[in-house]
Write a structure and sequence with these properties.
- The chain is an all-alpha fold and 137 residues long.
- Helices cover 77% and strands 0% of the residues.
- It is built from seven helices and no strands.
- α2 packs parallel to α4, α5 runs antiparallel to α6 and α5 runs parallel beside α7.
- The radius of gyration is 21 Å and the shape is extended.
- The protein starts with a helix and ends in an 8-residue tail after the last helix.
């Protein structure tokens, strides 16, 4: 890393502790709750600040409205079985104006993808081991 970039990063990180408190406050305001992991990660302010700033840019992208971003986050949480993330993003989606029906649709889409995640590789293995024209014995 160039010396001037390293200095800029070091200067930025000297404010990490104060920024971490702001990030926690802003996150709770944005989501309507505090994800469990954030106060724990805040114990490492330099990591927490850099990671959280990147996460914030991802969860509030320029090209998606917040309601849509929360529905996508909810679907991802549901598809991966992240229970506590689902709780946070259900409430955040509702806070951003998503209806119960829209939230349910996002969950059902995630379930479809999750089901396909199980079925697709398992059925491929079945067809490789026992092609469809194989008679059962």
């Amino acid at each position: 890393m160039k010396r001037e970039n390293k200095k800029a990063l070091d200067d930025f990180l000297t404010c990490a502790d104060a920024m971490s408190d702001d990030i926690l406050t802003d996150t709770e305001k944005m989501l309507g709750s505090m994800p469990f992991i954030l106060p724990v990660l805040r114990e490492r302010p330099e990591f927490f600040t850099l990671s959280s700033l990147a996460d914030d840019m991802i969860i509030r992208p320029k090209h998606l409205p917040p309601r849509t971003a929360e529905l996508v986050a909810l679907a991802a949480a549901a598809a991966t079985g992240a229970q506590y993330c689902m709780q946070v993003h259900i409430r955040a989606a509702a806070k951003e104006g998503a209806s119960r029906d829209e939230i349910l649709d996002a969950i059902l889409i995630a379930a479809l993808v999750g089901k396909t995640r199980v079925l697709a590789p398992a059925l491929r293995e079945l067809c490789d081991a026992l092609p469809p024209d194989t008679k059962s014995r």
